């Protein structure tokens, strides 16, 4: 029986047509199996197709080889069952915080009262109660990203896709929001898939880290993170996992031919 939130990526390949140049193959036969409620991170060098894979999962691009299934059903386009958060919060500057979050529910077939309650509850969930009427320019970078996370989960998706959501933040704010993201994941039990260049972040947050190699992007290895939470970044086990992931990424770089 198909299970909500179960993501299956089967032999997915993606090629882009580039004017005046031969077609560029970005992904090559990528396969993943993400269990419901899991937190999985995708790491790898720039250009290995991590963000492209997220675009395919969210349904923004259907021109690909292979199959992507959620709950046993093929993806046919964007849907409330999949939320996404980008590196740039992408809040509309002319809307208040609550209106920006409510925008994610514009096409939801919910009663107005249910939409209002969901917006209110998710503003509280990300710790922004009291800022409902604030505009984006009145929020710090960390607060704006919390708002983006609230917008991503307000529709109660089965899967939340995170494309470098903390990459533009200063180090201290980033560490704080990593803890916040983990807290939200524990409370909501949404399947989360994170693209990040920060190996520490991937180990701290994830049940599993998938190392992509490129180009074209392919799965180099999958590493289970069996450390108990909360995780100590200075522990011997944490450091060993980091070295193992970096080695997997470095081995791929060493094997690529020189340009």
Description:
This protein has 259 residues and is an alpha/beta fold. The protein has a single domain, classed as P-loop containing nucleotide triphosphate hydrolases (Rossmann fold). The protein has seven helices and ten strands. It has a six-stranded mixed sheet, with helices on both faces. It has a four-stranded antiparallel sheet with strand order 2-1-4-5, covered by helices on one side. A hairpin with a 4-residue loop joins strand 9 and strand 10. The longest helix has 20 residues. The C terminus is likely disordered.
CATH topology: Rossmann fold
pLDDT under 50 segments (min length 5)?
Answer: 252-259
- Could you tell me how far the N terminus lies from the C terminus, measured between alpha carbons in angstroms? 48 Å
Adjacency order of strands in the biggest sheet: 6-7-8-3-9-10
Family: Belongs to the ABC transporter superfamily.
Domain ABC transporter: 7-239
GO molecular function, one term: ATP hydrolysis activity
Protein name: ABC transporter ATP-binding protein
What order do the helices and strands come in, and which of them pair?
Blueprint: E1 7-16, E2 24-34, E3 39-43, H1 50-58, E4 65-70, E5 73-74, E6 82-85, H2 97-102, H3 112-125, H4 141-153, E7 159-163, H5 171-188, E8 191-195, H6 199-205, E9 208-213, E10 218-224, H7 236-255
Parallel strand pairs: 3-8, 3-9, 6-7, 7-8
Antiparallel strand pairs: 1-2, 1-4, 4-5, 9-10
Helix pairs in contact: 3-4, 6-7
Domain ABC transporter: 7-239
Organism: Chelatococcus reniformis
Protein name: ABC transporter ATP-binding protein
């Amino acid at each position: 029986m198909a299970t909500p939130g179960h993501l299956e990526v089967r032999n997915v390949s993606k090629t882009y047509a580039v004017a005046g140049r031969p077609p560029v193959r970005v992904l090559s036969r990528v396969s993943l199996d993400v269990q419901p409620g899991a937190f999985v991170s995708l790491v790898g060098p720039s250009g290995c197709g991590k963000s492209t894979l997220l675009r395919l999962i969210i349904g923004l691009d259907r021109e690909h080889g292979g199959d992507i299934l959620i709950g046993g059903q093929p993806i046919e386009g964007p849907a409330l069952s999949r939320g996404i958060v980008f590196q740039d919060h992408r809040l509309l500057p002319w809307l208040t915080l609550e209106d920006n979050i409510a925008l994610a529910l514009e096409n939801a077939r919910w009663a107005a009262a249910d939409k209002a309650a969901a917006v209110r509850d998710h503003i509280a969930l990300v710790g922004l109660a009291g800022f409902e009427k604030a505009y984006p320019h009145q929020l710090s970078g960390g607060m704006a990203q919390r708002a983006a996370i609230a917008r991503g989960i307000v529709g109660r998706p089965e899967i939340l896709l995170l494309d470098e959501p903390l990459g533009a933040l200063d180090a201290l704010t980033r560490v704080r929001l990593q803890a916040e993201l983990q807290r939200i994941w524990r409370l909501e039990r949404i399947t989360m898939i994170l693209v990040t260049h920060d190996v520490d972040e991937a180990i701290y947050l994830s049940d599993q880290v998938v190392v992509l190699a490129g180009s074209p992007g392919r799965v180099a290895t999958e590493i289970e993170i069996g450390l108990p939470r909360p995780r100590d970044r200075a522990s011997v086990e944490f450091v060993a996992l980091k070295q193992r992931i970096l080695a997997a990424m470095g081995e791929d770089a060493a094997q690529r031919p020189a340009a």
